[in-house]
Amino acid sequence: MSTNAPGGPSVLVVDDEAGILDSLRILLKNEGFTPHVALGGRQGLEQIEALSPDVVLSDIRMPSVGGLEILTAARLKDPDTPVILMTAQATLQSAMQAVNDGAYYYIQKPFRNDELVAILKRATEHKHLRVENKVLKQEIRRREKSGTQRPVGRSRPWLDVLKLAETVAPTESTVLITGESGTGKEVIARHVHDLSARADGSFMSINCGALPESLLESELFGHVKGSFTGAVKDKSGLFTAAAKGTFFLDEIGETTPATQVKLLRVLQHREVIPVGATDAIPIDTRLIAATNRNLEDEIRRGSFRSDLFYRLNVIAIHLPSLRERKEDIPLLVDAFLVNQAKVRGQDPKPLSEDALDALMRYSWPGNVRELENALERAVILTSGHTVEVSALPEKIVTHTPERVVESRATPNPTLDTIERAYIMWVLQSEGGNKTRAAETLGIDPSTLHRKLQRFGGEA
């Protein structure tokens, strides 16, 4: 659809009678269209070039420049623009010629207003469908060319995630992806990017927890020469580098309040101020953020800004843990084994039934990332044609679900057993972050470190 219309679909009316133009302008405005008028064919040609209307409605018989010339000009400018021709002297021959030349419809004067409005509505819908179909075909060709594939999985929780991601991908909305570490947050972010109108642009990513605050801000926003020790020249930030593309901020919950203020400005004003600069630089980047933390809990603790959270949380996508989608494990295994074989230039090595059974029994605290790493290790250690259970990490093979209290009548567990189970549960809930786990437990990090060492060197 045309972007120049402030209201409904834009219609250019071309006629050599001012009275007809005035009456049609009023009619179309009252029916929700955005009318533009041209007195005569020459003005019509100028308006077609300047306006790119959604629909053209033109008299066929006009001095100098007639309706068929208007039809030709409109179709040259945009082949998807419907052109409706009007005449008071309709003949079968002229109607056939107009349709053969590409007219959408041919209507005889005088016509009923409701008849014309119905034709215009069908014409605008026709154009909308043609443009939508063209975009869809372009997307299919682009995906075929780039080899974009749907992230692996067929479980209901995973299919729900993909459906939501694919629904929001064509929009410009900010997306917040949550879930445990290793669940595939960057995979979903890339999937959203690949299906968006920005797919031909860059996909930039950064882990906010991997850099100290000063370096993180320089990477995000850029800096000017001399703004800090080591800033020997101006540097563009990743927000600028991701122009026309997507910027993925992983582990945004690890950012400091000072960085959060600057990120809020980016979302509010779509601009960045490099470190040490005073002038803002406009950006054209879609933001996707991710975290393994519960940001609402962080807001209550005072470590995350609520206004930034609400700006980020426009579309929320929560990823299930691998424990919640175990039926996807065989599919993931096949995909990982095929990918690893391609990297090594070898044929894929199948997994034995015993090895797959062991993978299905394991609880996967590290989720999909842990599964991929385990399979890479197993393939490397396998000299034969099949990956056997013996090639898997021992903790996967010997894993049995831990129970604090036995089902049979046995003495109650000790305090040490209960304490260990609770601490390990909190640590897992906090994604392995010991500082955050200590805060949740209400103990000093050094105390947690000593307890983990006492439990068996797990610090």
Brief summary:
The chain is 47% helix and 13% strand.
Low-confidence parts, pLDDT < 50 over ≥5 residues? 1-6, 402-407
Kindly report the average pLDDT value: 85
Distance N to C terminus:
60 Å
- Fill in the CATH topology of the largest domain: Rossmann fold
Estimated share of beta-strand residues? 5-15%
Oligomeric state as shown: single chain
Q: Can you tell me the number of structural domains?
A: 3
> What is the C-level CATH assignment of the largest domain?
Alpha Beta
Strand order of the largest sheet: 2-1-3-4-5
Biggest sheet overview: 5 strands, parallel
The structure class reads alpha/beta
Total helical elements: 19
CATH architecture of the largest domain: 3-Layer(aba) Sandwich
> What spatial form do the alpha-carbon principal axes imply?
elongated
Rg calculated over all Cα atoms: 31 Å
> CATH superfamily of the largest domain, called what?
P-loop containing nucleotide triphosphate hydrolases
What does this structure look like?
The model is unreliable at 1-6 and 402-407 (pLDDT under 50). Strand 4 (83-87), helix 4 and strand 5 (105-108) form a beta-alpha-beta unit. It contains 19 helices and 14 strands. 47% of the residues lie in helices and 13% in strands. The protein has three domains: 10-131, 3-Layer(aba) Sandwich (Rossmann fold); 156-318, P-loop containing nucleotide triphosphate hydrolases (Rossmann fold, 3-Layer(aba) Sandwich), CATH 3.40.50; 322-397, Orthogonal Bundle (Helicase, Ruva Protein, domain 3). The protein is elongated, with a radius of gyration of 31 Å. It has a five-stranded parallel sheet, sandwiched between helices. The protein is of the alpha/beta class.
